[in-house]
Amino acid sequence: MTETERAVDDAERAREQGGGRRQFGAIPRRLTRGVLARRLIRDELGVLVVLGLLIAAIGIPYPDFLDSDNLLTTAHNSVYISLMACGMVFALAMREVDLSVGGTYAMCLVVGALLVRDGTPPWLAVPVMLVTGIALGVFNALVTTLLALPSFIVTLGTLMLYRGVGLALADGKQITDLPLDDSFFTFAGGDAAGVPFALWVLLAVVVVLAVVLTRTRFGARVRAIGSNPDAAAFSGIPVVRTRIQALALSGLTTACAAALALAFYGAGDPTLGQGYELQAIAACIIGGTPLAGGRGSVVGAVAGAMILSVVASGLVFFEVPINWTSFATGGVILVAVAADSALRRTGRRRH
Fold this sequence. Notes:
The chain is mainly alpha-helical and 351 residues long. It is 73% helix and 1% strand. Helix 5 (101-117) packs antiparallel against helix 6 (122-146), helix 5 (101-117) crosses helix 12 (239-265) and helix 10 packs across helix 12 (239-265).
């Protein structure tokens, strides 16, 4: 058992015992993995059940909702929030919050559109967008560390900063006149095997990041810091470096969302992404990642984003006036969180 895995186990046990003294007993790795696997299933079960019930509740009175094309469109509409939520899970799991993702999304979108408009091949603009997202995430982490401020405050400021830079670069206008016949727009912005290309990208990201969070040393450090920061620091875990890596990952997944949006929309709109940061956080919380840190679920976060997308799509079928959209979405979020919490408590009593 590695020192990092031992620190995770110690921190989680200390948290369950109310922050008690650190314990140093060695536990077999297969036992640790078994606990993580059971916890993962328990954390994701509630949100998946809610998602299934919600789809059924809309599909029964309106069978057209269950049409494959409509379901694919609904899933595709959730891709951008889902990708942001995938990175946000790592920040929340270690008690950090990245409110800047909406601004990062807009700025990366503008940067990519400007590069393409000025003659850069679209496929070559994508790495620049990804690096930009990573750089913005690292900047968030460095300011948080150097000024010793909560990431909530720092990223609230950089949210407006990044969006402002994006608006200035775009001169407050949508960036058009892009080569839409390029393979980047026709392939990455279209379908592959009958499924939107963006959904294939999301699936790959979910698989990779789920493994990273649950099976790698980096994921173990994230969970250890979130479970008990003092115990993690005492164990020698590099808290600052892990914070930088987590927020950089959040910036990377957000930039990935921006690249897919550029391919799909075929333009760079600096006003896109408003409110995405709150939706991404809501998706994570619905999916079983608590603000208290210590654990997270990438699959659950994506399921949470799907719930928000299903609600938005379902309101159209129920002919709910657009003025009630936010009200209905907020109500579903509360119901989803309550149902997930109830299933969690039931699971704990059984164990």
